[in-house]
Amino acid sequence: MRKSAADRFRHLFNRSLVFVRNQNQQYHHPSPLRSLSSMASDSPFPVTAQNINPQVLKCQYAVRGEIVTLAQNLQKALQANPDAHSFDEIIYCNIGNPQSLGQQPITFFREVLALCDYPALLDKSETQGLFSADSIERAWQLVDQIPGRATGAYSHSQGIQGLRDTIAAGIEERDGFPCNANDIFLTDGASPAVHMMMQLLIRSEKDGILCPIPQYPLYSASITLHGGHLVPYYLDEATGWGLEISELKKQLEDAKSKGISVRALAAINPGNPTGQVLAEDNQRAIVEFCKQEGLVLLADEVYQENVYVPEKKFHSFKKVSRSMGYGDNDICLVSFQSVSKGYHGECGKRGGYMEVTGFSPDVREQIYKVASANLCSNITGQILASLIMSPPKVGDESYESFMAERGAILSSLTTRAKALEEALNKLEGVTCNKAEGAMYLFPRIRLPEKAIKAAEAEKSAPDAFYCKRLLNATGIVVVPGFGFGQVPGTWHFRCTILPQEDRIPAIVTRLTEFHQKFMDEFRD
Amino acid sequence: MRKSAADRFRHLFNRSLVFVRNQNQQYHHPSPLRSLSSMASDSPFPVTAQNINPQVLKCQYAVRGEIVTLAQNLQKALQANPDAHSFDEIIYCNIGNPQSLGQQPITFFREVLALCDYPALLDKSETQGLFSADSIERAWQLVDQIPGRATGAYSHSQGIQGLRDTIAAGIEERDGFPCNANDIFLTDGASPAVHMMMQLLIRSEKDGILCPIPQYPLYSASITLHGGHLVPYYLDEATGWGLEISELKKQLEDAKSKGISVRALAAINPGNPTGQVLAEDNQRAIVEFCKQEGLVLLADEVYQENVYVPEKKFHSFKKVSRSMGYGDNDICLVSFQSVSKGYHGECGKRGGYMEVTGFSPDVREQIYKVASANLCSNITGQILASLIMSPPKVGDESYESFMAERGAILSSLTTRAKALEEALNKLEGVTCNKAEGAMYLFPRIRLPEKAIKAAEAEKSAPDAFYCKRLLNATGIVVVPGFGFGQVPGTWHFRCTILPQEDRIPAIVTRLTEFHQKFMDEFRD
C-alpha cells in the first residue's frame, strides 16, 4: 500500500530532485529566486543574489544548512551563558565527522604524518623513543617515494606516483583483480572527485545522473552546480532500502521520454543516509544495467570499511564487474574512496582518491586536465590515503595496537548503531531500518496532522520542524529527510551513529523524552 | 611601433582569450572539437571526447600541458638509461614549485605541523629536546583553538574560527586597517578559491572577467570551465608590463559593445608571469575603476612576500582601497593568498585563504554554501595559512633562525632573478623585463622567419617549438608564452627563477649554448 501511494507521487512529481525541493518550498524553503526578487534592485552592491550564477542559488546542501547555523548560534549562546538552555552542549549528529565527537585518530597514521611533515626528525636519535619502529620505517619509505624528498612540493596532478602504486597494490589485495596506478587520481577527499566527474559529464540541463533517493546531498548539490538533471531512483524502505533494477529501468525510460540523456548512475555502498549494504547479486545486476545502458557507474565506496552485520560484506563494484568478466573496455567505472570515513575518520585531512577505469585515453586526458587545473591534492591527504590502503601488517611493531584501535572503533560503531536503531524503533510512530553499514540511521517519522499544520504555520517542512524542535529541546543536531530526498508524504531525519558509546544512553533518554513530549503536544 | 602593430592585432583578434588559442591552433593545437570528430563514432566507450562537457574540452592549462608530459617522458627515459640524453636531469622551471627544486621548508612551520599532526608528542618529555619551545607553545595554542582538539575533524566550512582570527590579526598588522575573521574563507590553495568566485559570478558566456594578458592560466582555465568570457587587458611590455587604465576602459567598452556583461577584474600583484609589482597610485586607479564600473576586484596577492627590488613595495588592494576611504559597502574585493608562494613555498600543503569584502549578506551566504559543498579545506593547510600570517616574533626562541631562513631564501631569489634576467637579456633577439617580484621571468624571443616556418611544418606554435627544442637539448622545462597570452605576433616563454643558486651558472651556460645553436640553425 505504501508502494502504490509512492507510485502515485512519483507520477506526479518525478521529474528530478526538484520535486524534493518543491515539496519543501511550499513549507519551508521559499524559492530563492522568488524570495530575493523582493530585494531592492538599487542595492549598493554590484553583486546581488539576483545576478549571481543561478545554479549556485538553486544548490542546496542540507547537512551544512539552516539546522547547522541554528546549532552554531545555540552553541555561541551556551558559550556566553552555560545556563542559556536546558542542555549543556550541542551534539553534532548532522555529519559523519567522527573525531569531532571524540573518536581518537589511529596512532600509527599520525606518527607517520608527523614524521613526513618534519622529516628532520628521521635523523635524530630521540625519535626512536618517541615513535614506533614501523612508523619510522614507513616514513622513510614515503619520503623516498616523493621526488627529491620534497614533501612541500606540488605533486603530479594525479598524486605522487609511489603512493598511487601503494594504493593500487591495496586495491589488488582487496579485490583480487589487477589495478593500474595510472587509474588512480588522488583528491582532497571524495567531494572534489565527485564534482570533477560531474563537471566532465554534464553538458546541460538535458544531461541526467541517476541518483538514489534518499541520497547524500553532495550528489544533488554537485549536479545542480554543474547545471545537470538529477534523475531519482527510489530505494525501497520496506525492504531495508533495497535497490530494485525494475525501478532503475523505469526511471531511466521515464527520463529518456522527457529528452534527458542519462550519463551515469551513482550508487552509494554502504549507503548514505540509509546504511544499507548491497548484496553481491544486486551489484551484478547494477553493473549489467550500466553496461547495457552505456552508463558510467559512479561508485561511492567511502564506507567500505564500515560494515556492521555479519551477514553482509563489502564488495567493490570493480571486483564485481571484473568477476563478471568485464574488463577495462567493457564498463566505465569510477570508485570513490576517502580518508574521512572507515575506522580512521580523518575528515579534516581531506584525502581520498578515485579509481577511474573504462574511459578512452582521450577522455582520460581530459580528466587529467581538470585535475591539473587545481595542480594537485594536498600531500598529507595523499600520504594518508596510501596508509589506509596499506595499514600495518602482521609482524610490524604497530600491528597489534593498530588492530586493537581499529577493532575497538568498529565494534563500538556496531554497538552504537544497534543501540540507536533499537531506541528509535521504540518511539511512537517511528520505524528505522538497521544500519548495516556507513555511519547513519535514517528513521521514518510519522508525524501527526497537528504537527504538520504547526509546521505549515511556521512555513517549515514537517521534518525540519521536528528537527528544529529536537535541537532546541536537547541540543542534538540531526538533518531533516528532505535534504536527502524521500518519497513525498513521508518524513525522515538522518542521525549519525557517532557519539561516543558512553554518551549513547543519555542521548537516547533525551531523544525519547523529547519525542514523547512532542507527540503529547501534537497527537491527533 | 610595437604598439601600433599590437593595436592592429588587437583590432583583429581581441574578442577574448580565444584569440590566443586560435592564434596557436593554426600551428599547434588543432581544435579539440575538430580533431576528435574524426574519431569513430562507434567507439566502444560510452563517454568520448565528443560527448563530454565542451567547456572541459576547451579549457587549456599550459603550465601542466604538453611540454610537461614531454618532460616526464624524458625523465622516464633518463631513469631507464642515464645516458639516454645529453643532460642528466630534467630541470622543472615550468611551475612555481620551490621545494621541488631543492628549497628547504621553514623549520618552525614544519615543527608546528608535526606536533599538530601527532598531538600526543605534546605530552612527552623527549619532545622538549626535539622541538623549539615556541613551536611547542604554538602547537598547544593551535590544538586548543580546534574545537574538541579534534585535529582530524571537518572544520567550519570557512575554516577553524581561531585560525581565521589569527589570519585576520595578521592582515590588520600588514595593512593597518581592520579585518573581520568572518571575511576569511580558508581554501585548499588559491586555485579552488578562484574557481569558487568564477562559479559564483559567471552565469553564461555573456559574462566576462577582465584578465591581464599575459595572465596565469588558472584564470583562463577557470573562466572556460565555468562557461564565461575572458575579456583581456594588455600589460605593456615596453613599460615593464605596465597596467594602463586607458587600456582597461577601452577593453571594457569593447566588451560591453559586444553584449558582454563584465563582472570582475582580475589583477595579479606581484604579477604572474610578468613579475611586475604595481605602484600604489596605479592600484588606486584600478580600485577607482572597479568602484566606478561596479566590478568585483579579484586581487591575486599570492606573491605578496616576493618583492625583490628596493624601489617597490607590496600593498594589498584592501589597504589601498581602505586608504582611499572606501569601506566594506563601497567596493567588492576578494584577496587571494596561498601558502604555496612567498619564502615558504609550501605548494604541496594546499593551504590558502580568500578575504571576501563588499558583498551583501545574502551573497555571502551563497559563497558559504559553495564552500560547504566541499565541507572544508584541509586542516594542515589551514594551520599553515595561519602560521604564514603570524610567523615567530622578536623574543621567540625560533625568531632568529626563522628570520635567517626566510632572509636567505628571499635574498637568494633576488640574486637568482637578477642573474637569469641578465643572462636572458644577453641572448640574441631576446629582451626580458626585470622580475620585480613573484617567481618568474617572461622574456620575449624574436624568432627568425626560418624558425617560424620550421615550427609551422611541425604544426607547432613558434614559442612551443622553441621550448620543445630547449627541453630536448638541455632538459630545462619552460612554458611557451601562448599559455599565458601575448600580443599576437610576439613570442615569449615563462621561466621560474627557482633553481638553486649554485645551479644557475650551469643553467645559464646550457641555455646560452642552446640559444646560440638554435639561432645559428635558423638565423635568416
UniProtKB/TrEMBL annotation, chains A, B:
Gene3D superfamilies: 1.10.287.1970, Aspartate Aminotransferase, domain 1 (3.90.1150.10), Type I PLP-dependent aspartate aminotransferase-like (Major domain) (3.40.640.10). InterPro entries: ALAT1/2-like, Aminotransferase_I/II_large, PyrdxlP-dep_Trfase, PyrdxlP-dep_Trfase_major, PyrdxlP-dep_Trfase_small. Pfam families: Aminotran_1_2 (PF00155). It comes from the Eukaryota. The keyword Transferase applies. Homodimer. This is alanine transaminase. It comes from Medicago truncatula (Barrel medic). The lineage of its organism: Eukaryota, Viridiplantae, Streptophyta, Embryophyta, Tracheophyta.
